Amino acid sequence: MFGQQHVSIPVVDTSSGKVTQIQGDLYGGSRRALLLAHGGRFNKDSWRKQAPILARAGFLVLAINFRGDTFNADGSPNALGSDDDNAIDVQAAVVYLHGIGATSVSAIGASLGGDAVGDAETRSPSGLFDRMIFLGSEGGDAPEKLRGHKLFIVARDDASGSGLRLSGISKHYEEAPQPKQLIVLRGSAHAQFLFETEEGPQLIREILKFLQAK
After folding, report:
1. What's the rounded Cα separation, in Å, for the pair 178 and 143?
2. Quick check: bond before 179 cis, omega within 30?
3. Distant-in-sequence, close-in-space partners of 171: CB < 8 Å, separation ≥ 6
4. What's the confidence (pLDDT) of residue 2?
5. Residues near 37 by Cβ (< 8 Å), separated by ≥ 6?
6. Residue 78 pairs with which residues in a beta bridge?
7. Chain segment 184-206, per-residue pLDDT in tens
8. 3-state class percentages of the chain: helix first, strand second, coil last, to nearest 5
9. 91: helix, coil or strand?
10. End-to-end distance of the chain based on CA atoms, in angstroms?
11. How far apart are CA 52 and CA 154, in angstroms?
């Protein structure tokens, strides 16, 4: 029931009108769906440890690749797609989930994936997600337009070349409307790298607590 199933998701290219496809991994079986959008140094395979846990918690889990995903010379993944394309890919994944029977969709977006989730949400006239988790992410360009329940999670010392990410994430958190929550974990790991640290078990607990709340 919780095994991995590979799926192809149709996406309309807005510039050409042509239909392309993105790839996804589907876990579990439920009418409550959960979309997993990876960070820039990952791909859909990066959720293989977390996705079965989330499926056992009662979700139909879909981990997607973005159309711009590629590999570096050393074989490591890299996401090179545009912000617009990434948001459209998220929207297409939500359409796919509803098409296979989902009655509600939540999302976890890590870093770049969190921006894609947030942008897809704010560009939809009626909103896409019941709950959104932004993991090491500011949640897109228009936090004031985010709907649904929102959880921002970041490590206190997570830094980019321009400084601590907590500053920008806190700003977007303040601009986002209620209901919302901000959790600051210990350490400096960025986004999905948090799962591999001593904060990983707490991160999973906080995610499940948020997703399963009434």
Report:
1. 11
2. yes
3. 138
4. 65
5. 64, 66, 86, 90, 107, 108, 109, 110, 113, 114, 116, 117
6. 70
7. 999 999 999 999 999 999 999 99
8. 35, 30, 35
9. helix
10. 25
11. 23
Burial track 33-63 (b if 16+ CB lie within 10 A, e otherwise): bbbbbbbbbbbbebbeebbbbbbebebbbbb
pLDDT in tens, 146-185: 999 999 999 999 999 999 999 999 999 999 999 999 999 9
Among the listed residues 99, 97, 7, the one whose alpha carbon sits nearest the alpha carbon of residue 107: 97
Phi and psi for 178 in degrees, rounded to 5?
A: -65, 155
Residue appearing with tokens 């500011």: 138
Domains of the chain and any CATH numbers:
4-212 (3.40.50.1820)
Helix (H, G, I), strand (E, B) or coil at 99: helix
Residue of 109, 141, 116, 143 whose CA lies nearest to 36? 109
- Show Cβ contacts of residue 137 under 8 Å, excluding neighbours closer than 6 positions: 109, 110, 111, 112, 113, 114, 115, 117, 118, 152, 169, 191
Stated pTM of the model: 0.96
